[in-house]
Each structure stands twice: as C-alpha cells, then as structure tokens.
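Example 3.2
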Amino acid sequence: MTLELTKEERSKDGFFGALAGISQEMIDAHGRDFAMGALILAAQWIREGKLGKDADQVH
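Structure, written as tokens:
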C-alpha cells in the first residue's frame, strides 16, 4: 500500500528538500552555528514582515 501525496504536500516536500540543501551548503561553507543563525534570522524576518509579499510595505 502506497500513500499518494496531495499537490500541497508535494509542494511542501519540495521546499523542505530545498531548505535541507541550502542548509547543508551553509554548514559546509561556514559551519553549523552560521547555518542555524541564518535560518533563525530568516524566521524572525518572516515573522516581522521583512520577507514575503508584504515586506515592501513594512518599515
């Protein structure tokens, strides 16, 4: 029995794969602390509206 992913699940899975790839590149180039810090900063920027479609409107 195989489960078929929905279009949304496949899309999210693709983003997780891309995120894993860029994370590994950052670790390889600058270490784990840099990679974790960069990802935390990105999450904070998303929360604060500094990234995403509303970013231009927030100052």
